[in-house]
């Protein structure tokens, strides 16, 4: 089955506290048809003796597909410097390109996200070269690669991320468009409308109480789609107009999520995501 913009994705990093195999059937029952995953999801299972082929089988048996893997977090000079510091945290700085890409390829993911959570600047040429290299490594494994810009990193907004994608010159390069990062960085729908839909590799929706008037570092309390003030109608309609074929994921980070069971998460997220998408497409 070829996934597309009518498919709903349960985004993996936001449910990291629930083991991957325990997410599958609840996600499918709730109406998700696709999941995204983290490298840790795969490495944890493999360390327990579960082979990649078995993971693939379990996902397929649940009636799901894997879209993207999140993420590569150590790929720039500033990352390498931070990772070598004596007090470096065990986090995204452990996620280097080749091990993450290998894990994605083993389980049949389609794309891999690249992020920068460190605000320290890097030379523009070094960023473009590093991302282009990741795209080449991804292509060797039959994968696409995309930048997910973060308002608190050195790739803080859509124009910066898109310029890097263009400068890389790689056919498999693209973007993750997350509504939280989009609106928090004060991106505009006109900016999004200028991106070819084929370069949108992943879409994630969530909400917040109000639309920011100036860029903010990040919102820690994300809401279900449709519960806040983001212009998700315009966001989804613009993605449709540019011809984005990426499935749409629901990704919520807040203090309540780690306390909830997967059935509750899957049902409430799928219902809110589908309602928001259908409203944008005027189906209800």
Describe the structure.
The protein is an alpha/beta fold. The protein is about 40% helix and about 15% strand. It has eleven helices and eight strands.
Itemize the secondary structure elements and their pairings.
Layout: E1 8-10, H1 20-30, E2 34-37, H2 39-47, H3 52-61, E3 65-72, H4 77-83, H5 97-106, E4 111-114, H6 124-140, E5 144-148, H7 158-168, E6 173-178, H8 179-184, H9 189-193, E7 200-205, H10 232-241, E8 248-250, H11 262-280
Parallel strand pairs: 1-2, 1-8, 2-3, 3-4, 4-5, 5-6, 6-7, 7-8
Helix pairs in contact: 1-11, 6-7, 10-11
Classification by helices and strands:
alpha/beta
> How many beta strands in the DSSP annotation?
8
Provide the β-strand percentage band: 5-15%
Gyration radius, to the nearest Å?
A: 18 Å
Residue-averaged pLDDT? 94
CATH superfamily: Divalent-metal-dependent TIM barrel enzymes
- The run of helices and strands is EHEHHEHHEHEHEHHEHEH
> How many discrete domains?
1
Distance between the termini: 26 Å
Molecular shape: globular
List its traits.
284 residues, alpha/beta, TIM Barrel, 8-stranded parallel beta barrel, 40% helix, globular
Structure summary:
The chain is an alpha/beta fold.
């Amino acid at each position: 089955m070829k996934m597309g913009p009518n498919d709903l994705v349960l985004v993996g990093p936001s449910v990291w506290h629930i083991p991957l195999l325990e997410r599958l059937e609840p996600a499918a029952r709730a109406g998700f048809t696709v999941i995204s995953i983290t490298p840790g999801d795969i490495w944890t299972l493999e360390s327990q003796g579960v082979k990649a082929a078995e993971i693939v089988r379990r996902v397929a048996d649940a009636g799901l597909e894997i879209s993207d893997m999140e993420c590569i977090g150590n790929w720039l000079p500033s990352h390498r410097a931070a990772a070598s510091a004596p007090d470096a945290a065990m986090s995204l700085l452990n996620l280097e390109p080749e091990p993450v890409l290998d894990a994605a390829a083993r389980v049949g993911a389609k794309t891999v996200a690249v992020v920068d959570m460190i605000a320290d600047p890097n030379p523009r040429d070094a960023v473009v070269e590093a991302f282009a290299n990741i795209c080449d490594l991804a292509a060797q494994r039959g994968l696409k690669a995309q930048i997910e810009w973060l308002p608190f990193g050195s790739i803080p907004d859509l124009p910066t991320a898109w310029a890097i994608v263009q400068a890389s010159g790689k056919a498999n390069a693209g973007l993750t468009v997350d509504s939280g990062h989009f609106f928090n960085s004060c991106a505009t729908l006109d900016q999004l409308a200028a991106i070819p839909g084929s370069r949108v590799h992943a879409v994630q929706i969530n909400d917040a109480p109000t639309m920011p008037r100036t860029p903010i570092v990040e919102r820690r309390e994300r809401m279900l789609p449709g519960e806040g003030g983001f212009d998700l109608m315009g966001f989804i309609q613009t993605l449709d107009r540019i011809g984005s074929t990426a499935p749409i994921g629901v990704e919520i980070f807040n203090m309540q999520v780690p306390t909830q069971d997967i059935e509750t998460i899957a049902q409430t997220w799928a219902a809110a995501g589908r309602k928001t998408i259908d409203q944008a497409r005027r189906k209800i």
